Amino acid sequence: MNTKIIMYGADWCGDCIRSKEILAERNMEYIIHDITDPEKGKEYSEIVMNLNDGKRIIPTLVIGDKHYANPRPSELNILLDSLDPIDENKVTRCSQGKILNNGDNVLLTRDLDVKGSSLNLKQGAQIEKIKLTGDPAYIDARIGKSTISIKTEFVKKKG
């Protein structure tokens, strides 16, 4: 990604945590400036207030030459969609070549034994609400109380 992203926020801020999660899910590189930092927090806080007409609104994201004060998740996703074209090498695809996204449901294309567990997943089993790992060869799936990584070559997108 070519566009620099700076986020001004705080660890205790729920909206900041949500924005960080969205950026992480999308494998976006960003810099975080914590307004509660003992050394530079005051400086970061002043920057936020200058950007937002004297209001301390966090998170404030600076993307390129524009700033956004506490964007909703849908707004942030639309904004991130517009930044750069999709890098096809980082797109996660199922065994049939369909693009996988966070929250998709998949079916297993073969039986799988889970290493370090007595768990045996059967071909055709549905796995709901997968999570992307950032590695196009793997997805994370919640099975019972465990989270496991599954190679994408062993799943197909449902629907």
What's the topology here?
Elements: E1 5-9, H1 14-25, E2 31-34, H2 41-51, E3 60-63, E4 66-69, H3 73-81, E5 106-108, E6 112-113, E7 120-121, E8 126-127, E9 131-132, E10 138-143, E11 146-151, E12 155-157
Parallel strand pairs: 1-2
Antiparallel strand pairs: 1-3, 3-4, 5-8, 5-12, 6-7, 9-10, 10-11
CATH class of the largest domain: Alpha Beta
The value of Rg in angstroms is 19 Å
Characterize the main sheet. Answer: 4 strands, mixed
Shape descriptor: elongated
* CATH fold field value of the largest domain: Glutaredoxin
Indicate the structural class.
alpha+beta
Would you identify the regions where 5 or more consecutive residues have pLDDT less than 50? none
What letter string, H or E per element, gives the SSE order?
Answer: EHEHEEHEEEEEEEE
How many structural domains in the coordinates?
2
Give the integer mean of the pLDDT values.
88
Tell me the number of strands: 12
Strand percentage: 25-35%
Q: Tell me the CATH superfamily of the largest domain.
A: Glutaredoxin
